[in-house]
Write a structure and sequence with these properties.
The protein has 290 residues and is an all-alpha fold. It starts with a helix and ends in an 8-residue tail after the last helix. The protein has a two-stranded antiparallel sheet. It is built from 11 helices and 2 strands, in the order H-H-H-H-E-E-H-H-H-H-H-H-H.
Amino acid sequence: MLSFSLLSNAIVSGLLLGGFYAGVAAGATISFGLLDIANIAHPAFVVFGAYCAFALNQRFHLDPLLAAVFVTPVFYAVGWFAYQLYHHAFERRGDDSMRGLAFFFGLMFVGEVVLILTFGVDYRYSSAEYTSTTFKLGPVAFPLREVIPFVGSLVILVAAQAFLKRTFTGRAILGVSQDPIALRLMGADPVRLKRIAFALSIALAGAAGALLLVLEPIEPAIGRDFIGRVFAIAVLGGMGSLPGTWVAAVMLGVIENLTSIFAGASWAPAVAFGFLLVTLTVRPSGLFGR
Protein backbone atom coordinates (compact mmCIF):
# COMPACT_ATOMS: atom_id res chain seq x y z
CA MET A 1 0.00 0.00 0.00
CA LEU A 2 1.28 3.45 -0.93
CA SER A 3 2.03 5.54 2.15
CA PHE A 4 2.38 9.30 2.39
CA SER A 5 5.76 8.95 4.07
CA LEU A 6 7.18 6.79 1.26
CA LEU A 7 5.78 9.03 -1.49
CA SER A 8 6.91 12.30 0.12
CA ASN A 9 10.42 10.99 0.78
CA ALA A 10 10.67 9.71 -2.79
CA ILE A 11 9.67 13.11 -4.21
CA VAL A 12 11.99 15.09 -1.91
CA SER A 13 14.92 12.77 -2.61
CA GLY A 14 14.22 13.07 -6.34
CA LEU A 15 14.15 16.87 -6.10
CA LEU A 16 17.47 16.94 -4.26
CA LEU A 17 19.06 14.47 -6.68
CA GLY A 18 17.69 16.38 -9.67
CA GLY A 19 19.19 19.60 -8.34
CA PHE A 20 22.58 17.91 -8.28
CA TYR A 21 22.05 16.67 -11.85
CA ALA A 22 21.52 20.31 -12.83
CA GLY A 23 24.91 21.24 -11.39
CA VAL A 24 26.55 18.44 -13.36
CA ALA A 25 24.75 19.42 -16.57
CA ALA A 26 25.35 23.19 -16.29
CA GLY A 27 28.73 23.05 -18.01
CA ALA A 28 27.38 20.80 -20.77
CA THR A 29 24.54 23.27 -21.34
CA ILE A 30 27.16 25.93 -22.04
CA SER A 31 29.50 23.83 -24.21
CA PHE A 32 26.84 21.86 -26.07
CA GLY A 33 23.94 24.31 -26.02
CA LEU A 34 25.78 27.59 -26.61
CA LEU A 35 29.02 26.56 -28.34
CA ASP A 36 27.77 23.51 -30.27
CA ILE A 37 30.67 21.46 -28.90
CA ALA A 38 29.63 17.88 -28.09
CA ASN A 39 32.01 17.43 -25.17
CA ILE A 40 31.21 13.80 -24.42
CA ALA A 41 34.02 13.89 -21.83
CA HIS A 42 32.15 16.40 -19.65
CA PRO A 43 31.17 13.78 -17.03
CA ALA A 44 34.80 12.61 -16.97
CA PHE A 45 35.85 16.13 -15.98
CA VAL A 46 33.25 15.96 -13.20
CA VAL A 47 34.82 12.73 -11.93
CA PHE A 48 38.30 14.31 -12.18
CA GLY A 49 37.01 17.18 -10.06
CA ALA A 50 35.73 14.69 -7.49
CA TYR A 51 39.10 12.95 -7.32
CA CYS A 52 40.94 16.27 -7.01
CA ALA A 53 38.66 17.19 -4.09
CA PHE A 54 39.30 13.73 -2.60
CA ALA A 55 43.07 14.18 -2.92
CA LEU A 56 42.90 17.58 -1.21
CA ASN A 57 40.69 16.09 1.48
CA GLN A 58 43.15 13.28 2.15
CA ARG A 59 46.36 15.29 1.86
CA PHE A 60 45.39 18.58 3.52
CA HIS A 61 42.14 17.57 5.30
CA LEU A 62 40.17 20.10 3.29
CA ASP A 63 36.40 19.80 3.28
CA PRO A 64 35.15 18.94 -0.24
CA LEU A 65 33.26 22.24 -0.39
CA LEU A 66 36.43 24.17 0.44
CA ALA A 67 38.37 21.99 -2.00
CA ALA A 68 35.97 23.14 -4.73
CA VAL A 69 37.31 26.68 -4.30
CA PHE A 70 40.78 25.45 -5.30
CA VAL A 71 39.61 22.95 -7.93
CA THR A 72 37.46 25.39 -9.92
CA PRO A 73 40.20 27.82 -11.13
CA VAL A 74 42.51 24.90 -11.97
CA PHE A 75 39.81 23.34 -14.10
CA TYR A 76 39.18 26.70 -15.77
CA ALA A 77 42.82 26.64 -16.91
CA VAL A 78 42.44 23.01 -18.05
CA GLY A 79 39.36 23.95 -20.06
CA TRP A 80 41.19 26.91 -21.62
CA PHE A 81 44.00 24.63 -22.80
CA ALA A 82 41.59 21.87 -23.95
CA TYR A 83 39.63 24.28 -26.13
CA GLN A 84 42.84 25.71 -27.58
CA LEU A 85 43.91 22.21 -28.58
CA TYR A 86 40.43 21.36 -29.92
CA HIS A 87 40.24 24.57 -31.95
CA HIS A 88 43.67 24.24 -33.56
CA ALA A 89 43.32 20.54 -34.30
CA PHE A 90 39.68 20.39 -35.45
CA GLU A 91 37.45 23.44 -35.27
CA ARG A 92 39.42 25.82 -37.48
CA ARG A 93 39.72 23.09 -40.13
CA GLY A 94 36.00 22.34 -40.09
CA ASP A 95 36.56 18.87 -38.61
CA ASP A 96 34.75 19.65 -35.38
CA SER A 97 31.90 17.16 -35.84
CA MET A 98 32.95 13.51 -35.91
CA ARG A 99 36.69 14.01 -35.36
CA GLY A 100 36.05 16.46 -32.56
CA LEU A 101 33.68 13.98 -30.94
CA ALA A 102 36.37 11.30 -31.21
CA PHE A 103 38.81 13.72 -29.56
CA PHE A 104 36.57 14.04 -26.50
CA PHE A 105 35.93 10.30 -26.44
CA GLY A 106 39.69 9.85 -26.31
CA LEU A 107 40.00 12.35 -23.46
CA MET A 108 37.32 10.49 -21.53
CA PHE A 109 38.97 7.07 -21.77
CA VAL A 110 42.51 8.37 -21.22
CA GLY A 111 41.29 10.22 -18.14
CA GLU A 112 39.63 7.08 -16.82
CA VAL A 113 42.85 5.09 -17.26
CA VAL A 114 44.86 7.80 -15.50
CA LEU A 115 42.49 7.70 -12.53
CA ILE A 116 42.67 3.89 -12.35
CA LEU A 117 46.47 3.94 -12.40
CA THR A 118 46.60 6.71 -9.80
CA PHE A 119 43.82 5.80 -7.38
CA GLY A 120 42.93 2.21 -8.27
CA VAL A 121 39.43 0.84 -8.84
CA ASP A 122 38.24 0.95 -5.22
CA TYR A 123 35.49 3.35 -4.20
CA ARG A 124 36.65 6.55 -2.51
CA TYR A 125 34.53 8.71 -0.27
CA SER A 126 34.59 11.90 1.75
CA SER A 127 35.44 11.75 5.44
CA ALA A 128 33.29 14.81 6.24
CA GLU A 129 31.06 14.11 9.24
CA TYR A 130 27.98 15.82 7.81
CA THR A 131 27.65 13.21 5.05
CA SER A 132 26.03 10.87 7.60
CA THR A 133 23.76 13.53 9.14
CA THR A 134 20.04 13.59 8.38
CA PHE A 135 17.42 16.12 9.43
CA LYS A 136 13.74 15.29 9.56
CA LEU A 137 10.69 17.45 8.97
CA GLY A 138 7.81 15.28 10.06
CA PRO A 139 8.04 12.04 8.07
CA VAL A 140 10.32 13.57 5.43
CA ALA A 141 14.09 13.02 5.70
CA PHE A 142 16.67 15.54 4.45
CA PRO A 143 20.11 13.88 4.31
CA LEU A 144 22.84 16.51 4.25
CA ARG A 145 24.76 14.45 1.70
CA GLU A 146 21.91 15.26 -0.72
CA VAL A 147 20.96 18.72 0.54
CA ILE A 148 24.49 20.15 0.25
CA PRO A 149 25.02 19.09 -3.42
CA PHE A 150 21.53 20.46 -4.17
CA VAL A 151 22.36 23.87 -2.67
CA GLY A 152 25.84 23.85 -4.23
CA SER A 153 24.39 23.10 -7.66
CA LEU A 154 21.88 25.92 -7.25
CA VAL A 155 24.78 28.29 -6.49
CA ILE A 156 26.61 27.05 -9.60
CA LEU A 157 23.64 27.70 -11.88
CA VAL A 158 22.80 31.09 -10.38
CA ALA A 159 26.42 32.23 -10.68
CA ALA A 160 26.72 31.00 -14.28
CA GLN A 161 23.39 32.60 -15.24
CA ALA A 162 24.41 35.91 -13.63
CA PHE A 163 27.71 35.86 -15.53
CA LEU A 164 26.02 35.19 -18.87
CA LYS A 165 23.23 37.72 -18.42
CA ARG A 166 24.82 40.56 -16.42
CA THR A 167 28.38 40.87 -17.71
CA PHE A 168 29.60 42.18 -21.05
CA THR A 169 31.66 39.03 -21.68
CA GLY A 170 28.70 36.80 -20.81
CA ARG A 171 26.38 38.61 -23.21
CA ALA A 172 29.07 38.42 -25.89
CA ILE A 173 29.22 34.64 -25.37
CA LEU A 174 25.47 34.49 -25.89
CA GLY A 175 26.03 36.51 -29.06
CA VAL A 176 28.56 33.94 -30.31
CA SER A 177 25.91 31.24 -29.99
CA GLN A 178 23.46 33.29 -32.09
CA ASP A 179 25.54 35.02 -34.78
CA PRO A 180 29.36 34.78 -34.62
CA ILE A 181 29.77 36.55 -37.98
CA ALA A 182 27.90 39.63 -36.80
CA LEU A 183 29.91 39.59 -33.60
CA ARG A 184 33.15 39.50 -35.59
CA LEU A 185 31.98 42.48 -37.66
CA MET A 186 31.53 44.36 -34.38
CA GLY A 187 35.19 43.81 -33.54
CA ALA A 188 34.86 40.89 -31.11
CA ASP A 189 36.89 37.69 -31.35
CA PRO A 190 34.51 34.67 -31.37
CA VAL A 191 37.37 32.21 -30.78
CA ARG A 192 38.46 34.03 -27.62
CA LEU A 193 34.88 34.15 -26.35
CA LYS A 194 34.34 30.46 -27.06
CA ARG A 195 37.60 29.70 -25.25
CA ILE A 196 36.35 31.57 -22.18
CA ALA A 197 32.95 29.84 -22.34
CA PHE A 198 34.43 26.36 -22.73
CA ALA A 199 36.87 27.00 -19.88
CA LEU A 200 33.90 28.09 -17.77
CA SER A 201 32.05 24.87 -18.61
CA ILE A 202 35.01 22.77 -17.42
CA ALA A 203 35.36 24.90 -14.28
CA LEU A 204 31.70 24.19 -13.48
CA ALA A 205 32.36 20.48 -14.05
CA GLY A 206 35.20 20.60 -11.51
CA ALA A 207 32.98 22.30 -8.93
CA ALA A 208 30.22 19.73 -9.54
CA GLY A 209 32.81 16.99 -9.01
CA ALA A 210 33.47 18.22 -5.48
CA LEU A 211 29.72 18.01 -4.84
CA LEU A 212 29.67 14.47 -6.26
CA LEU A 213 32.20 13.45 -3.61
CA VAL A 214 29.78 14.67 -0.94
CA LEU A 215 26.83 12.85 -2.50
CA GLU A 216 28.26 9.36 -2.98
CA PRO A 217 31.46 7.28 -3.13
CA ILE A 218 33.34 7.62 -6.40
CA GLU A 219 35.29 5.32 -8.70
CA PRO A 220 36.99 6.06 -12.05
CA ALA A 221 34.18 4.80 -14.32
CA ILE A 222 31.30 6.50 -12.49
CA GLY A 223 31.20 9.28 -15.09
CA ARG A 224 29.67 6.89 -17.61
CA ASP A 225 26.47 6.89 -15.57
CA PHE A 226 26.06 10.61 -16.23
CA ILE A 227 26.73 10.81 -19.99
CA GLY A 228 23.15 10.15 -21.07
CA ARG A 229 21.62 12.21 -18.26
CA VAL A 230 23.81 15.26 -18.89
CA PHE A 231 22.96 15.60 -22.58
CA ALA A 232 19.33 14.63 -22.05
CA ILE A 233 18.98 17.44 -19.50
CA ALA A 234 20.72 19.94 -21.78
CA VAL A 235 18.39 19.08 -24.66
CA LEU A 236 15.21 18.80 -22.59
CA GLY A 237 15.77 22.14 -20.86
CA GLY A 238 16.34 23.94 -24.15
CA MET A 239 19.71 24.36 -25.81
CA GLY A 240 21.75 26.89 -23.87
CA SER A 241 19.11 27.62 -21.21
CA LEU A 242 20.44 27.30 -17.65
CA PRO A 243 16.98 27.84 -16.06
CA GLY A 244 15.70 25.12 -18.39
CA THR A 245 18.57 22.89 -17.27
CA TRP A 246 17.47 23.27 -13.65
CA VAL A 247 13.81 22.49 -14.40
CA ALA A 248 14.65 19.54 -16.66
CA ALA A 249 17.13 18.07 -14.16
CA VAL A 250 14.69 18.28 -11.26
CA MET A 251 11.94 16.68 -13.35
CA LEU A 252 14.22 13.81 -14.40
CA GLY A 253 15.44 13.36 -10.82
CA VAL A 254 11.89 13.01 -9.48
CA ILE A 255 10.82 10.70 -12.32
CA GLU A 256 13.89 8.48 -11.87
CA ASN A 257 13.47 8.28 -8.10
CA LEU A 258 9.75 7.50 -8.20
CA THR A 259 10.32 4.86 -10.88
CA SER A 260 13.19 3.27 -8.93
CA ILE A 261 11.11 2.98 -5.76
CA PHE A 262 7.80 1.83 -7.23
CA ALA A 263 8.87 -0.07 -10.36
CA GLY A 264 12.51 -0.99 -9.82
CA ALA A 265 15.85 0.70 -10.54
CA SER A 266 16.21 -0.99 -13.92
CA TRP A 267 13.12 0.89 -15.19
CA ALA A 268 14.31 4.34 -14.11
CA PRO A 269 16.46 5.23 -17.16
CA ALA A 270 13.84 3.89 -19.60
CA VAL A 271 11.02 5.91 -18.05
CA ALA A 272 13.16 9.06 -17.76
CA PHE A 273 14.30 8.94 -21.39
CA GLY A 274 10.79 8.02 -22.49
CA PHE A 275 9.61 11.23 -20.84
CA LEU A 276 12.38 13.07 -22.74
CA LEU A 277 11.16 11.68 -26.08
CA VAL A 278 7.53 12.55 -25.36
CA THR A 279 8.44 16.09 -24.31
CA LEU A 280 10.59 16.69 -27.39
CA THR A 281 7.76 15.40 -29.58
CA VAL A 282 5.53 18.13 -28.18
CA ARG A 283 8.26 20.79 -27.84
CA PRO A 284 11.19 20.00 -30.18
CA SER A 285 13.14 23.01 -28.91
CA GLY A 286 12.95 21.83 -25.28
CA LEU A 287 11.12 23.29 -22.30
CA PHE A 288 12.81 26.71 -22.44
CA GLY A 289 14.06 26.62 -26.03
CA ARG A 290 13.43 29.49 -28.39
